[in-house]
Design brief:
- By secondary structure, this protein is α/β, with parallel strands linked by helices.
- The protein folds into 2 domains: 5-119, no CATH class; 126-247, 3-Layer(aba) Sandwich (Rossmann fold), CATH 3.40.50.
- The chain contains 8 helices and 10 strands.
- A 6-stranded parallel β-sheet has the order 6-5-4-7-8-10, covered by helices on one side. Strands 1-2 form a two-stranded parallel sheet. The chain has a two-stranded parallel ribbon with strand order 3-9.
- The two termini are 34 Å apart.
Amino acid sequence: MEPHLGDNVYHLDYLRKIIDNNPEYHFTHYARTKYLNELQIQIYGYENNIKLKSYEQGYPKDAINGWINANNWFQGYYKPQAFQIEGCPLSYDKMYIEWYNLLEQKYNLPNPIKTTEDFKLKFNGLENYDLEKEYDVLIINSIPQSGQYYYEEDLFRELTYHLVNQGYKVITTKKIDNIECTLDYNYNLIQIAKISTKTPIIIAVHTGPLALCLNKITLENCQFLHILDTAHSFSFDKLTCSPTLQSIQF
């Protein structure tokens, strides 16, 4: 396993919130080169406090590994214990809160994310994008990179066509023939999040493009938000989770 786009998105949210409360802090965040353009957009307004650099080009030996599975913390320590206590699915927001508490204890980093409310993502840039269209349904059907969901491509296609035939205006994040897709317009993650703030129904694989959609505006405005994940859930109101598309009802 290695950090993927979503891991970086959550970690930058953590750094931004530290800086909101402690503007004297400065960070250099190392990420895979392929993610840097996407992540650069997410530090808008924080450029003086957060610098992005390529992980592949090297990093200091004393750099803090902020990835949630650093030293096998999530897979080897937290997950087995939490399964015994909570069972399945695990609360994703509670998991991250525990991780940020550990970083606070180990590295004396102030933890700004102590509650589920704190975990809602906050970032600048939504105001920079105008929506040319609005949709009834946003389907985040991008393929997950960490095995958190057994991908059901045929079911996604069937569900999408069914919704369109019922008169819904639908946009996806992975191309389905004859359906609008964020890739058609080269939308970045903040633009996808902008769509989510205006879309009443969201069906999403728990993968990178979902992360910025877990912001306060979207979570307050959406009428139905369902996340597909075999082992995790979230504690937000109006949000449901399941391991398969077959269980969705709305």
